[in-house]
Amino acid sequence: MKKLNVGMIGGGFMGKAHALAYAGMPMFFWPAPAIPHRHTVVDVTDELAKNAAARLGFDNYSSDWRAVVENPEIDIIDIVTPNDSHAEIAIAAAKAGKHIISEKPLARNAAEAKLMLDAVRAAGVKHMVAFNYRRTPAVALAKKYIEEGRIGKILNFRGTYLQDWSADPNSPLSWRFQKKIAGSGALGDIGTHVVDFARYLVGEISDVMAVAQTWIPERPLQTGGADKLGTVKGDNEAPKGAVDVDDEFITLVKFANGAIGSIEATRNAWGRNNFLTFEIHGEKGSLYFNYERRDELKVSFADDPADSRGFRTVYTGPAHPYGEGLWPIPALGIGYGETKIIETYDFLKSIASDTSVSPDFADGYQIAVIADAILESAEKGVWVKAAAELAEVK
Amino acid sequence: MKKLNVGMIGGGFMGKAHALAYAGMPMFFWPAPAIPHRHTVVDVTDELAKNAAARLGFDNYSSDWRAVVENPEIDIIDIVTPNDSHAEIAIAAAKAGKHIISEKPLARNAAEAKLMLDAVRAAGVKHMVAFNYRRTPAVALAKKYIEEGRIGKILNFRGTYLQDWSADPNSPLSWRFQKKIAGSGALGDIGTHVVDFARYLVGEISDVMAVAQTWIPERPLQTGGADKLGTVKGDNEAPKGAVDVDDEFITLVKFANGAIGSIEATRNAWGRNNFLTFEIHGEKGSLYFNYERRDELKVSFADDPADSRGFRTVYTGPAHPYGEGLWPIPALGIGYGETKIIETYDFLKSIASDTSVSPDFADGYQIAVIADAILESAEKGVWVKAAAELAEVK
Amino acid sequence: MKKLNVGMIGGGFMGKAHALAYAGMPMFFWPAPAIPHRHTVVDVTDELAKNAAARLGFDNYSSDWRAVVENPEIDIIDIVTPNDSHAEIAIAAAKAGKHIISEKPLARNAAEAKLMLDAVRAAGVKHMVAFNYRRTPAVALAKKYIEEGRIGKILNFRGTYLQDWSADPNSPLSWRFQKKIAGSGALGDIGTHVVDFARYLVGEISDVMAVAQTWIPERPLQTGGADKLGTVKGDNEAPKGAVDVDDEFITLVKFANGAIGSIEATRNAWGRNNFLTFEIHGEKGSLYFNYERRDELKVSFADDPADSRGFRTVYTGPAHPYGEGLWPIPALGIGYGETKIIETYDFLKSIASDTSVSPDFADGYQIAVIADAILESAEKGVWVKAAAELAEVK
Amino acid sequence: MKKLNVGMIGGGFMGKAHALAYAGMPMFFWPAPAIPHRHTVVDVTDELAKNAAARLGFDNYSSDWRAVVENPEIDIIDIVTPNDSHAEIAIAAAKAGKHIISEKPLARNAAEAKLMLDAVRAAGVKHMVAFNYRRTPAVALAKKYIEEGRIGKILNFRGTYLQDWSADPNSPLSWRFQKKIAGSGALGDIGTHVVDFARYLVGEISDVMAVAQTWIPERPLQTGGADKLGTVKGDNEAPKGAVDVDDEFITLVKFANGAIGSIEATRNAWGRNNFLTFEIHGEKGSLYFNYERRDELKVSFADDPADSRGFRTVYTGPAHPYGEGLWPIPALGIGYGETKIIETYDFLKSIASDTSVSPDFADGYQIAVIADAILESAEKGVWVKAAAELAEVK
């Protein structure tokens, strides 16, 4: 069985998730398409990197990502850094002939994403963007129903991603609130996951019409080196810095196939934690999913008898997508880890079998085009075409 | 205790609901502000009207609504007819000095609604539009929380009204699908309830930006005199007639106070029955309501301790709005009937105490302005001001 | 259409519910089997009775129930008094040849219930016990599925009735906490509703094995004449009286047909309001119902395809039991009132068509036998036969 | 950082879960109390063991568990085999001075469990039983609330564990249906998890009174070597073998502290997958948990204001037990893997810090005593003392 050496750039929360996936994937999907080997982890200082290697089970560590990208032993570069470094690392990795998986959003904007797409295409390497939520088995089951025609032609999509970790004005000014690092706010951070759902399940988005707001214009500056998610209380008395990204947006969407819908994301919704949902109405049925209860997909079929029609709550397990590799009983439990394990499985399969995987950098680029269109629409108050370059992309 | 004689124009499903409310209101709210007496019911033929009187407990019946409107014994005219007759009846009733309650939407469009508003104002009678859902105790509780500042300044509102009774292309061409009778489709029929929620709970809507669709362009013509709701299967082989109203719309909304949001309504959502919901995010908390589970209001407070913060599911009962008059234990059960009983109570209180009641014809007119703006926006693809005449209205 | 004159003994909360049902029933079920006419209401004083008549729409009032029972104009005696007077009134009414509907539980114990059953049988009148919850359309739908064999042979039944209105030790010593009036506590008050579900849906209960507890041994005495439900805060400083009934019981049950199960009821479950639920497992499917969300029945069918099997949430409406008479769209909303309207409909139908109705006094007696057996089992710690007299009863 | 070598006996589904936990634990809890090293895995044949080692990331493999138990390099023996081998392996491992974690139930019966307890006590090694579900953060949060007195003195506990993977009569005769291997059926397999919850959250169970049933008396024999969970369809035509364990049981329970309750488990509940729930009523509040929605704990506090009292849905995250080590946002997602990672963390902490951990073999033994009492009670129809040996155990 082929072993593929991974160089992972970043050792934070997302690095933990990816490391767990590398360790666990072959345990779930066996025979594995290839064995991912945790070769080298990179963090900003040697000390942090050394700690990350011990913690995450990598053989080596480094504070020099360029050296790791150039290391001929490395097969895969895994980018789990803040958004502003994705492009530079990915382009270098592509030039070095590495397969690349990058955290989402692919880049801070479409222009940057396009450079990345051009680079991986030129290099002929495999590429993936880590919109992991679509790999929740219940979401994959929704896709299966749709492909089998079980809810008919799709009319409507409503997607939301609501959180509350930054609803407190004293939650610190993480990089996620800074445009120069993040590109955008709730839009890039979480809204793009919903855009990914919409494109995956319904089809290409052609037009958007949005509003966006920054509810909390400044937040306490962080002290200490580490970036904090807002769940850590900020210092009330600390000096503050400006937030220059959106806290919330809502957009109407038109799909190329005629469906309509809306997408909403906010990090200021008290009581919502990871409320990533979609509801889809088709001519023959409906679907509903809420990641907070991610083992479940709700589906209603029009052709059920009138006296027993209603949403079915299906718990995913062995009879559903990826079920052969996961747990033997439904609701034994899909966690964040399992979504990343499946993602890793599909990425390694694409490398081992020399096939493409979705979502790839072309998807990531198209999502960036849509995100840029959402911001433009919110600013100008007009419908904006979101798929202008689509033909060229695919 | 004063007795007020009711002349009810219409003997269909909604007439049933109102008749039950007239009979039941004093049983719940005692001492009643006044006793509504079922004096005369009107239907399109004498036979139908006679039947309605027997069934609904009216002393008299008639097929001549004008005569009833002119009858000096009558104090209140209750309009429960299709939308195209609201204006004519209401204007005549106002001229005859009757207090008026009209089913929603107030009229087919804003121009018609304005004539009705002018008429009741000129006559100095009491007037109400029957947006009964806001009288669900859980919705009134949401209003109470908001007024007490318990969720802080409102940032966002999302409202939906999803049904599936006309999702089947063979459901018959009820008047609800005909613009000349209904004015609009899902918008006027159910979407206006959500607009009423939005204005009641958040404040005035200033701008809208919408999409709208007619998914099923023609439906089987009805046979027989009676109008059928779509839950009755239409005849597959019957000749068909055109649908010229919206099956679905989604609109972005901006509120005058700076909040943003979206409103969506459709009658083509398989599995949704009376899915009238709102979610509101404020600076200090959030609210969620779903009429399908109408005894419940969900509320999350920001200032709950971090280890026990989350949406509370509050079942309304004696400790909540209207609780003194309803059932003695929460979840004993609010049905459609109770919402109409509360509505009747508030309307009669306004007459007995010579005060205004909300929503009145000014609200009904403003909602019609918003509905017209939604259709205009959907057609033109631009933001449309929805509150142009507001200052004049209030 | 025949008119039946009702003499209602009692003018409290339950009298309100019944009065609404008499007024509303013909509005929903038309042609009505007969028209119930609110002839005379009885309360403990003339003043209370006069008030009740005005409030509840009765033509006459009285403080002398015996006179009303004897009144030849009266066709139906409706007993909505505390439990200790059910037997005396019912036996007198039977002797006077009146049809009788009695609130639940039928009596304080089986011996008393047996006298009532003997009396109505001797008189040949119609009789019903007001276990109204089984008339919730979703519960009637469960019965329909079971009768159609759609969940197969039943294996297991779990029923609960959980409330919290008396969980506060300062809630007053209502008659519901006094054995001489109530007979038993949570058992008779709410537990018997679950026993009614169990017998209705599964079959006869043959054996019980129970535990019971009185968690709060004394409560503040009530001041003033009116009995208060515990949701009214008692007076902390008031003198206290002893509670001599159960606050809670749990019983294992065996059914004559081999199924097993458990029943639990308490009024000390903080956060539960009217949590009347059942879950039933059959060889071919399962059912779940929670009255707090009473428009819904959940059903899972074994023969659904493995990839889309799961509980369906069915909202009752026109396609379900009683749907022809209720509201035209599912989830428009069943409240407590509607359950009583259906009950009245079925009772009047039994009179008009000279057929029996269920649950009748034989059911009420058998439920009392089971309740007595539960208390005996809880006291002695042994299994107790609950259906000894069943053959004689039916 | 100390490394502890693990010898894992068993390479099936549960071995996968444990292997993931060994790999992942230090990624989550850092600094880790010790690093668990996957030294050797044992399976029934060399080929299976070799495959398991490759798949699960062990350095070595063996088909001779005795040799592994004796291997001086091994620090921890992890028993993930069917129930009938737990005792023999554990006793041998104890004699060899190894720390031991055993899958649940600890043994087939109390007598066997007692031998295991005696062995680990004599050897002075650390021991744990893998009742992992109590390590779900939401369950640990329930424990925290209880310990802080936030729901007051506990009155009632109701626990269920409902599954449907063997509801189909053609699901194969896994070892889980054979008394000689499993000891008991639903009771040992899943019911003991509920018993663990009850003891963990409420206190010691003193008496039980149960019913038990075998609904499907025979099932198709398995073909091929591997044991199959019932979700794999059995062969209709295959020869059948007898089931000699319970498919379902329900038991009343009395706790030593005066609380009462019930516990129910079945694998024949169509539509229930991993419906492991508890509801607890205390004098000051209530708790509800359902593992199918395991990120949530519902809690109702009596002292909330009357107008906003109701169950709160708390999503566990950084502000809750184990939150410092898990994911940074609530509802990012706890899966089965995370529960095992936490279990491993606590077990290694007990070794590293030379402290005891719960549940240990004493707990496992006491649970076996209770399980035996449940079977005895079901057979004899009488209350059975379940804690006779408790004083000796603790």
From TrEMBL, chains A, B, C, D:
Domain Gfo/Idh/MocA-like oxidoreductase N-terminal: 4-131
Pfam families named among the record's database cross-references: GFO_IDH_MocA, GFO_IDH_MocA_C3
Domain GFO/IDH/MocA-like oxidoreductase intervals: 140-287
GO molecular function, one term: nucleotide binding
InterPro entries referenced in this protein's UniProt entry, alphabetically: Gfo/Idh/MocA-like_OxRdtase_N (IPR000683), Gfo/Idh/MocA_oxidrdct_glycsds (IPR050463), GFO_IDH_MocA-like_dom (IPR055170), NAD(P)-bd_dom_sf (IPR036291)
Record keywords, A-Z: Oxidoreductase
Protein name per its UniProtKB record: Gfo/Idh/MocA family oxidoreductase
